[in-house]
Amino acid sequence: MLDWIFKNKTKKQINLAHLGIDIHSHILPGIDDGVETIEEAVAMAAKMRDLGYTHVVTTPHIIWDCYKNTPEIISSKLDEVKTAVRAAGLDIVIGAAAEYFIDEHFMQMLINRETLLTLPGNRLLVELPYSTPLLNLAETLFSIIEFGYQPVLAHPERYTYFHSDLPMYRKLSDQGCELQVNILSLTGYYGDNISKIAEWLLRNDLITFIGTDAHKIQHLNMIQQSDRHKWVSTYPFQNEKLVGLW
């Protein structure tokens, strides 16, 4: 009798196998604000496999004021992680792109046609300032597209200056920018207001991809243990199609 009661009180853990691929995380050790050790990286890869992912494109920050990552630095760290993941016997494919902060350095790399690390389908994952809006955002997105990339805006729900200008999200989408919501936003991790905006974006069919944006194992544990799974299981995210473009 008691076993039946406790069994029914157990939360159903989330399964993300239908997504196939995570396109936003920070699991290369020691190069940004993500994991610090190779052991943490392997633990993150194992947890992602437990969640159902078969592929991960991890995306270390490139913010020139604080994280001066280059393709060479990222590639070297990726090789270390892939070797450790193979040694651990984990059945998961790991690659790397980057999360580019749109600043003067990014624009110079774009204009100079330097090597940029992309998600499948020549997609560039970009992020904006959190405190103040980028004045030339429309022109910047146009430039990214003009140079042959598909912009993907990371966690648009977290830019609070858009919350009082909801039509801006539609404008971004209409300009050709794909939007990527964080699973953590839907769990309430960043607060109820951001969670509400994330759900508004989903209700209005403005989101293309979903990502963990996991920086540490606790983020993945929170995703796994959350009981707020409705949108993750019902919304037509396009993650899976990127596996075929790998």
From TrEMBL:
<protein>
    <recommendedName>
        <fullName>protein-tyrosine-phosphatase</fullName>
        <ecNumber>3.1.3.48</ecNumber>
    </recommendedName>
</protein>
<dbReference type="GO" id="GO:0030145">
    <property type="term" value="F:manganese ion binding"/>
</dbReference>
<keyword id="KW-0378">Hydrolase</keyword>
<dbReference type="Pfam" id="PF19567">
    <property type="entry name" value="CpsB_CapC"/>
</dbReference>
<dbReference type="InterPro" id="IPR016667">
    <property type="entry name" value="Caps_polysacc_synth_CpsB/CapC"/>
</dbReference>
<dbReference type="InterPro" id="IPR016195">
    <property type="entry name" value="Pol/histidinol_Pase-like"/>
</dbReference>
<comment type="similarity">
    <text>Belongs to the metallo-dependent hydrolases superfamily. CpsB/CapC family.</text>
</comment>
<dbReference type="GO" id="GO:0004725">
    <property type="term" value="F:protein tyrosine phosphatase activity"/>
</dbReference>
